[in-house]
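User: Some background: our group keeps a shared notebook of sequences we're curious about, and every so often someone picks one and asks for a predicted structure to add to the entry. Today it's my turn. The entry only has the sequence so far, pasted here. Could you supply the structure so I can complete it?
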Amino acid sequence: MATESRRRILQVHGASASAADELMAYNCSNFTLQSLPTKYPLPDEAFVGTWAAYEQEAAPGEVFSFLCQKLVQFRFPIMEGIRSTADYRLATARGILPEDGHGLALVIERPEELRLEIHQTPAGRIPILFTPNRRDFVSLVHALTMRNEPGLVPDSMGACLVSGYNNWDRVRTYRAKWAETLGHEPSDEEWGMEFQSFARQKDFYQDKFILLSGGCYSAVSADAIGLDADTWRALSIVIRREHECAHYFTRRVLSSTRNNLLDELIADYCGIIAAAGEYRADWARRFLGLEDFPTYRAGARLENYRGKTPLSDEAFHVLQSLVNSAIESLRAYWQRQAAFGLPHAVIGLSRLTLEELASEDILATKTEDE
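Assistant: Of course. Here's the predicted structure to add to the notebook entry:
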């Protein structure tokens, strides 16, 4: 859509010139749409085989203790300043683990409840680490995305996609197999030369996986949705799982995943349909705090996506109006596109800016026949 057309839509939603400038920068799609696959699901990425082996090898109730031997971050507690310590730098940058019995390790409340599964998605299978315990989920987020440092994990965040994770267990496995081909134990100098070549091939050692928690999706209660607690908890797990799988799809197929409202609307679209069998616009609004639009529920999940340079209050107010309209457009989009499947739907939506998504007429013309 031309810049002026986008600005006109923003003006309809009440944006001043300065707020429109902010939102024009924020609302752009960042997806790559060249050389798209023609058949799904895609083959698994290289890391999946290692995690499938983890799933098979870890005894029931022993996933956490098993992974303590594989993931270096599990050898360290959550502690302010720990990422600057020599032991931590050696472990995460070189795979050199601290000696056993050093007295420090990650502690979670219910280690026996941690589960690992390999989940099928249109973009290939993806490992999922699930815990029903909220505090344990927060600890895993700290360890695996915040370098074992404490930090804010909003109550409305119940899952995340970990990407670009350096798996030193895979490095050690590669080194052992490489040494077998040499027929002797390699010197540090030999390994150093081999490692330089190895490190350029990130598929050999970088993993992706999902951290998934129990509890209510977007911190929305069962009463607010109108369901009993057990049913809503079960549906919440499906929504957040498929939400994160949508992020995995856009990252692998469309080369982007961002902390942005366009990405979130697409991911919620996938999660809601997987759980409800249809797109529930009322759920989508409530998840973001817009159930009483134009009144916004302060503290809701929408605030998690104001951007690295946060949108001004005026721009954020306009964003609420855009998102409300976009959700209504998504309802119509689902009715037209349901028969084509989610990969088709996600690719169609990825062609849009948020302004276009908020304009049902443009949504229809840009996504039909795609």
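Suggested note for the entry: The CA atoms of residues 8 and 15 lie 9 Å apart. The radius of gyration is 22 Å.
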